[in-house]
């Protein structure tokens, strides 16, 4: 009774928060509940029945195992529960989505009781989440002459689990809710500072937008019971940023529909829209839940009588409203004509939201069911020795004779599975590809583990070369929430087969390195495909896609991902960097020059950026590829010179060896295997057998951008533009300003150097600047706090070995101690240097934050409202993004420097340099 009483106590505590009982995932609690159900006179029996039927997490959770086995007892008559008939028990099993429930159904279907076997087989025919252990049993039974096994396989071969589902509605009525103007960051839908609660879906749902917005959404749904509430980014893009799965989950919780009456707080089928469409990764996540994402195009650029775009005083295009989507507007989605209507008036073509594949996702309740369904149909057809019946929409295959391949097209063709043999595929083709590297991060990892449990996966696919579970997003504060969540996550992922930042057995020291940096190191082939649970999964080797936690789970379980081959934009460089500039300025200038070249159109959005950075090693080039998330690109590829690729792979080998030396390799010796892959690739490049990846000369690009290095005359700063009169222009990452814009007078309250946008060179720049000031002035006096979070431990170790860490220690008032990590987030800062633990720190916004209303100068990537710094009544917090030397100088001065002060301060400093050819970087 102790466990049950604790659960009842927790329920009472949750009532005070306006929450329902937390779904049960533990075996011990559910076993006690079952004992109370069996005791007909137990005072808690009625509540226990309710918990058992409606409040158990499905899949492969310990509770699901217990539930499935008890339902089996009921079906066989071994246990009698008046309220749960054998037929109802089978219905409950049908909603448990794999794992033990499938094993139980197979036990029943292949058992000796013919009546029960037929009933269980009828349920099995609706299921898709079967793994090798399940299909092996079916195959063995079929080969031994079992007629029911044959009938199940015949049903699977016809894909009746899909074909017998109801067709999607021809008309879907929606009522609009404008979530905000401008780009809607996923931070608005699932704030980083609430990351700890993401696995508790109902609790996390309380942080969607605001309580007022939640009340308005609920009121709209109540007033329009026959309609779905559609969340809209007015004059912007929906779902930019990170944390897509929790963002979509929250939207679905408030405006979607329940996936199963027997599984609480798992909702599907949200409908979202944006004037400029949906962020690519967010749209993939919407597909995971069987939802709909619309590109509204309800605002267009105004043109004059000659067809020229009319611009305002700032040079921005003036927008005109084509039709209104103001909150409360009723619209109709027609899935047959693939048009959006207001009454009988046609507004816009929405066919991109209703491709044959997307219609299948909607019909099946999400993309997972389609992936597993195809796999199951293929297995059944092969076992029966028959041809695959065309059931699913054929994959679109685009092949243009005589046209070369871009880098991403080459990678996708190499990794493609299931496409027409020998056929060369170009952009626009729908492709299933094998995945080489997978990454899971700690604030979404618990959701990934839940997704793996829900799809009944228990071990990583052998196709995957390597996978890593990070601890970087919870690195800065080891609080009670982290202590409760992270060890549990690390154990699950370690057991599943990932290399984990923390060792559940406590053998090796916790490593809080930034996930993208680790993935960049363990990617040891530039032909690799990487899937990572973070929007900054943008490697400088291979092509990497930031993904929702569900897509990460799918990649871990199956070793595959499905997507169209994206179009590419080619980025090259001309001219020469000025001696006082840093490569970070080139990154920002690329965005600014691109927008200027194309009249404000972001040609990067939703596409691959193929950037020719051949002279930079993987650490340095990562600064560019990482930022492509802020450019709204789907992914990026770095085209490297042979010699820099070899340098990068040798660097990766050394860092992987450090992980091995720490004891982080697993029983499958994954890390050792990665070193072998790197050695093979190096040998191929040296011998000339297979040089570094290059696009074909006659490849076709959506656009080409040539960045003029000669035009970059001063440091470039990405400004959130918090006071822009046009709300849609705020927090977009598109406002790139020169340092002189600030006139050397803008007050800076806090500086931050760290997270994934810095590498070892940045840390050495910091050390060199402090040494210079210390030598010339006698000491360094900070007029604003400077928070420093190195991205990885190996960088810290190298800085110590090379003598740079000593100067950082000299001016630090705080230095991280892994043996006594901070248990509480810092609430105030002094004018000194803080040496923080490697990890995300301020950039994530879930632990440390700047004081409200501060102006922060940072090297990080996020300038979204409330992420790094929140607003006060009188002043908006702003996070300006710049290079390391600008951040250092801003904290020493307490303000933005003038260009003259900057040039003087960086004299003699070894900044990160770049040249379009290797003439300046030969070593």
From TrEMBL:
UniProt GO BP = propionate catabolic process, 2-methylcitrate cycle; tricarboxylic acid cycle
Q: Where is the Aconitase B swivel domain?
A: 177-405
EC code(s) of this entry: 4.2.1.3, 4.2.1.99
Q: Which GO terms describe its cellular component?
A: cytosol
- Coiled-coil regions in this chain? none
User: What Pfam families does its record include?
Assistant: Aconitase (PF00330), Aconitase_2_N (PF06434), Aconitase_B_N (PF11791)
Q: Which GO terms describe its molecular function?
A: 2-methylisocitrate dehydratase activity; 4 iron, 4 sulfur cluster binding; aconitate hydratase activity; metal ion binding
> What SUPFAM superfamilies has UniProt attached to this entry?
Aconitase B, N-terminal domain (SSF74778), Aconitase iron-sulfur domain (SSF53732), LeuD/IlvD-like (SSF52016)
Question: Aconitase/3-isopropylmalate dehydratase large subunit alpha/beta/alpha domain: from which residue to which, for each copy?
Answer: 409-894
First-tier enzyme category under EC: lyase
The record places domain Aconitase B HEAT-like at 6-162
Q: Which domain of life is it from?
A: Bacteria
Q: Which PANTHER family match?
A: ACONITATE HYDRATASE B
Name of the molecule in the record: Bifunctional aconitate hydratase 2/2-methylisocitrate dehydratase
- Supply the source organism for this entry: Flavobacterium restrictum
């Amino acid at each position: 009774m102790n466990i049950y009483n604790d659960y009842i106590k927790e329920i009472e505590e949750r009532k005070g928060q306006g929450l329902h009982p937390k779904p049960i995932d533990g075996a011990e609690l559910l076993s006690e509940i079952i004992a109370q159900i069996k005791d007909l006179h137990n005072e808690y029996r009625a509540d226990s029945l309710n918990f058992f039927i409606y409040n158990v997490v499905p899949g492969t959770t310990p509770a699901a195992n217990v539930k499935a086995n008890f339902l089996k007892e009921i079906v066989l008559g071994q246990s009698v529960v008046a309220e749960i008939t054998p037929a109802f028990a089978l219905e409950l099993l049908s909603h448990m989505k794999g794992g033990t429930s499938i094993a139980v159904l197979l036990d029943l279907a292949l058992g000796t009781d013919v009546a029960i076997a037929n009933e269980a087989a009828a349920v099995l025919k609706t299921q898709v989440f079967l793994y090798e252990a399940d299909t092996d049993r079916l195959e063995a039974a079929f080969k031994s002459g079992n007629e029911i096994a044959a009938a199940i396989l015949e049903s699977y071969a016809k894909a009746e689990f899909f074909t017998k589902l109801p067709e999607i509605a021809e008309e879907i009525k929606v009522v609009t809710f404008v979530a905000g103007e401008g780009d809607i960051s996923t931070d608005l839908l699932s704030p980083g500072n609430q990351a700890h609660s993401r696995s508790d879906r109902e609790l996390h749902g309380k942080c969607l937008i605001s309580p007022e917005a939640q009340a308005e959404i609920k009121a709209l749904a109540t007033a329009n019971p026959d309609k779905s509430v559609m969340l809209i980014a007015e004059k912007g893009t929906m779902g930019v940023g990170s944390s897509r799965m929790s963002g979509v989950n929250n939207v679905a919780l408030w405006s979607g529909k329940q996936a199963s009456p027997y599984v609480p707080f798992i909702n599907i089928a949200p409908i979202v829209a944006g004037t400029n469409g949906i962020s690519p990764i967010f749209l993939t996540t919407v597909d995971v839940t069987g939802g709909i994402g619309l590109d509204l195009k309800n605002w267009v650029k105004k043109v004059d009588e000659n067809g020229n775009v009319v611009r305002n005083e700032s040079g921005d295009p003036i927008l005109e409203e084509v039709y209104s989507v103001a909150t409360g507007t009723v619209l109709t989605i027609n899935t047959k004509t693939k048009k959006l209507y207001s009454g009988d008036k046609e507004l816009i073509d929405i066919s991109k939201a209703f491709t044959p594949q997307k219609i299948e996702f909607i019909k099946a309740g999400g993309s997972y069911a389609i992936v597993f369904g195809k796999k199951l149909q293929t297995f059944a057809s092969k076992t029966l020795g028959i041809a695959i019946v065309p059931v699913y929409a054929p994959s679109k295959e685009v092949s243009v004779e005589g046209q070369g391949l871009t880098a991403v097209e080459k990678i996708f063709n190499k990794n493609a599975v299931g496409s027409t043999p020998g056929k060369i595929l170009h952009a626009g083709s729908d492709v299933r590809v094998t995945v080489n590297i997978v990454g899971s991060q700690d604030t979404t990892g618990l959701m990934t583990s839940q997704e793996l449990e829900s799809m009944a996966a228990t071990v990583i696919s052998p196709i995957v070369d390597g996978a890593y579970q990070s601890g970087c997003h919870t690195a800065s504060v080891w609080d009670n929430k982290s202590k409760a969540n992270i060890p549990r996550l690390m154990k699950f992922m370690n057991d599943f087969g990932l290399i984990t930042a923390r060792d559940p057995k406590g053998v090796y020291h916790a490593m809080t390195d930034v996930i993208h940096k680790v993935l960049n190191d363990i990617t040891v082939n530039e032909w690799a495909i990487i899937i990572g649970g973070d929007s900054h999964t943008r490697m400088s080797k291979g092509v990497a896609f930031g993904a929702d936690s569900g897509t990460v789970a799918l990649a871990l379980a199956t070793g595959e991902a499905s997507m169209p081959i994206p179009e590419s934009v080619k980025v090259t460089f001309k001219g020469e960097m000025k001696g006082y500039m840093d490569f970070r300025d080139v990154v920002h200038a690329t965005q600014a020059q691109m927008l200027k070249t194309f009249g404000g159109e972001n040609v990067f959005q939703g596409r691959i950026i193929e950037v020719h950075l051949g002279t930079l090693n993987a650490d340095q080039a990562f600064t560019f590829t990482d930022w492509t998330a802020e450019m709204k690109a789907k992914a990026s590829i770095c085209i490297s010179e042979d010699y820099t690729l070899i340098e990068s792979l040798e660097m990766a080998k050394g860092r992987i060896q450090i992980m091995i030396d720490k004891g982080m390799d697993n029983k499958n010796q994954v890390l050792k295997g990665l070193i072998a892959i790197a050695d093979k690739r190096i040998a191929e490049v040296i011998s000339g057998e297979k040089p570094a990846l290059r696009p074909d000369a006659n490849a076709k690009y959506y656009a080409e951008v040539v960045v003029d290095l000669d035009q970059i005359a001063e440091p470039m700063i990405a400004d959130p533009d918090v006071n822009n009169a046009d709300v849609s222009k705020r927090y977009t990452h598109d406002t790139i300003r020169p340092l002189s814009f600030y006139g050397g007078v803008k007050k800076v309250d806090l500086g931050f150097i760290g997270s994934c946008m810095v590498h070892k060179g940045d840390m050495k720049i910091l050390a060199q600047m402090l040494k210079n000031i210390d030598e010339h002035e006698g000491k360094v006096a900070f007029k604003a706090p400077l928070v420093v979070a190195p991205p990885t431990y190996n960088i810290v170790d190298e800085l110590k070995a090379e003598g740079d860490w000593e100067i950082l220690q000299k001016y630090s008032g705080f230095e991280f101690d892994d043996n006594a990590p901070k248990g509480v987030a810092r609430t105030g800062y002094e004018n000194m240097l803080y040496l923080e633990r490697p990890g995300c720190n301020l950039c994530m916004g879930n632990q440390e934050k700047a004081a409200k209303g501060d102006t922060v100068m940072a090297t990080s990537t996020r300038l979204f409202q409330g992420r790094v710094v929140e607003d006060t009544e009188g002043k908006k917090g702003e996070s300006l993004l710049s290079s390391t030397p600008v951040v250092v100088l801003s904290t020493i001065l307490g303000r933005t420097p003038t260009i003259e002060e900057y040039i003087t301060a960086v004299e003699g400093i070894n900044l990160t340099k770049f040249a379009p050819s290797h003439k300046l970087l030969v070593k």
